Amino acid sequence: MVRKLYMSVSCKTDIVGDGKMPRCPKCGAEINSLDVKALTIMRFFMHLGEPCYEPTEAQPEDTRFYCPECGAVLFTSEEEAVKFLKQ
Questions:
Q1: What distances in angstroms separate CA 31 from CA 48, 54, 55, 62, 66, one per listed residue?
Q2: Are 76 and 35 in contact (CB under 8 A)?
Q3: How far apart are CA 87 and CA 78, in angstroms?
Q4: pLDDT tens digit string along 10-21?
Q5: Cα separation of 84 and 20, whole Å?
Q6: N or C: which end of the chain has fewer CB atoms below 10 A?
Q7: How far is CA 10 from the centre of its chain?
């Protein structure tokens, strides 16, 4: 059985360029991380009587990076998100 699941992950980073935190362009909050939600196709199976999920493929076109403060969608690609956090 293959299921499509949205997984929500918050990724922290220490890659801020000049020591200043970037500001969310929507709410103005200083942020050093983004929340990311991505559609991932997972395989569901039973292993030793326990339910298990195993990722099979990611759907990058369904990835969104959000401000952790206001929840606004800021980016749709990892490259854009990394560039923003490095500024």
A1: 43, 32, 29, 23, 11
A2: no
A3: 14
A4: 444 444 455 678
A5: 12
A6: N
A7: 6
